[in-house]
Amino acid sequence: QVQLVESGGGLVQPGGSLRLSCAASGSIFSLNDMGWYRQAPGKERELVARITRNGNTNYPDPAKGRFTISRDNAKNTVYLQKNSLKPEDTAVYSCYAKVTTLRAAKLYVDDYWGQGTQVTVSS
Questions:
Q1: Cα–Cα distance, 36 to 82 (Å, whole number)
Q2: What is the DSSP letter of 14?
Q3: From CA 76, how far away is CA 30, in angstroms rounded?
Q4: What digits encode the pLDDT tens for the residues 32-50?
Q5: In a 3-state reduction of DSSP, which class is residue 16?
Q6: Which of 29, 38, 63, 112 is least buried, going by the fewest C-beta atoms within 10 A?
């Protein structure tokens, strides 16, 4: 089994910063693409940032320029640095990873999700 556990969420004032972490554990052969999604109340889930194993990143609007995704492959961890936070950034942030596992001498690639961490931006 593979688990992704997020941490670092909480309450922050507008203009503040947070760093979210997501650590993967379990029977992992390799980690491929990783990223962060968010879902605000009454809104569709949206991709915030994505990073490949070799470090290529993608930032869809509206987080571009304020959020930075990074990863530490040695720790099986992906991070999301969030600066200049706005009330509209309030959401549940979830990490995902494409994980390769070895089972019965075969390689499988599956998507895994964390349970999410709440970020609230409010004064």
A1: 12
A2: T
A3: 9
A4: 999 999 999 999 999 999 9
A5: coil
A6: 29
